[in-house]
Design brief:
The structure is a single chain. The protein is an alpha+beta fold. The protein is about 20% helix and about 35% strand. It contains 6 helices and 16 strands. Strands 7, 8, 9, 10, 11, 12, 13 and 14 form an 8-stranded antiparallel β-sheet that branches. Strands 1-6-5-4-3-2 form a 6-stranded antiparallel β-sheet, with no helix packed on it. A hairpin with a 5-residue loop joins strand 4 and strand 5. The two termini are about 30 Å apart.
């Protein structure tokens, strides 16, 4: 079966995607994974070199290591890997947050990451609690860099992060960088004038399955690596069953498919942004 039969979206085929956390790779055993419906094998050549091979044809796939992950591009890369400027700041922990397989379209996973409305009900006592359930109005814009950015997002959280000692209203900024890549900037409980950063690299395994790879850039003061990673895995463990019970598994792009509310402003823009990019993989395209 050809690539085109599995994924015909050029914007995805010619982009970089995370396919593995480097800590999960063995120097002795090949690692098997899938990207955009293509089965891939990761083979170690010496201590540091990794080769990514298509299992169907044996062809080498473009690959590179960055931010603690192995990346692959099935086509011809048209741009560099997403740049995370906070990864160059010396006073931050740079952590991979564990690779979480989810039985849902990766586009659904991105949209869930953008949703503040579920905090009090899914992450009760951590990222939200009753009666603080209202999502205040916020701004969403498409930048000159072709990224979706939501600003002025605020939400009360009893335990915003592993370093939080008390609840407070957390400032959020969301940035959708690529169709399957989204970043979250949120108030640090110790340094209220600075932001912790979580970038979620979603691996589209196929149209209805994905692997979420969080990259955590947290300020070191008052925290430790194990606490940060454990907190992130707890949050994703709460999200996973909710995501896997969403129907349909693919993300509907037709504006009439699901009824949005005011709190969904960024999700509405995300779906429109995907339509404008002609992204269809993992989606139910809008009716003409």
């Amino acid at each position: 079966m050809s690539i085109a039969a599995l994924c015909s979206d050029r914007v995805l085929l010619n982009d970089w995607h995370v396919i593995a956390d480097l800590t999960n790779l063995s120097a002795h055993e090949p690692f098997q994974t899938r990207l955009l419906g293509i089965d891939l094998g990761v083979h170690c050549r010496g201590r540091y070199n990794k080769e990514v091979v298509r299992n169907d044809t044996g062809a080498l796939v473009n690959s590179i290591k960055r931010y603690g992950f192995l990346w692959a591009c099935l086509g011809t890369p048209e741009r560099d890997i997403v740049f995370v400027p906070e990864a160059e700041e010396a006073d931050r922990y740079l952590l991979t947050g564990g690779s979480i397989a989810v039985k849902v379209s990766g586009l659904r996973a991105v949209e869930n990451f953008l949703d503040m409305g579920h905090f009090p009900f899914v992450h009760t006592g951590l990222l939200g609690e009753e009666p603080h359930t209202e999502v205040a109005p916020y701004k969403v814009e498409l930048t000159a860099a072709d990224e979706l950015v939501a600003t002025e997002c605020k939400f009360y959280q009893p335990v915003a992060s592993p370093t939080a000692k008390e609840g407070f209203v957390v400032d959020y900024i969301y940035k959708v960088i690529r169709p399957y890549t989204v970043a979250l900037y949120k108030s640090n409980p110790v340094h209220k004038d600075r932001l912790d950063v979580i970038t979620l690299f979603v691996q589209p395994v196929d149209e209805e399955n994905c692997v979420a790879h969080p990259f955590l850039c947290y300020l070191k003061d008052g925290s430790d690596e194990a606490g940060i990673r454990n907190f992130m895995q707890l949050i994703f463990a709460q999200d996973k069953p909710i995501l896997e019970n969403q129907l349909p598994r693919r993300l509907p792009l037709d504006p009439r498919a699901e009824t949005p509310i005011r709190a969904d402003a960024v999700a509405v823009m995300y779906r429109r942004w995907l339509r404008d990019k002609s992204v269809t993989y993992g989606a139910i395209p809008a009716r003409m």
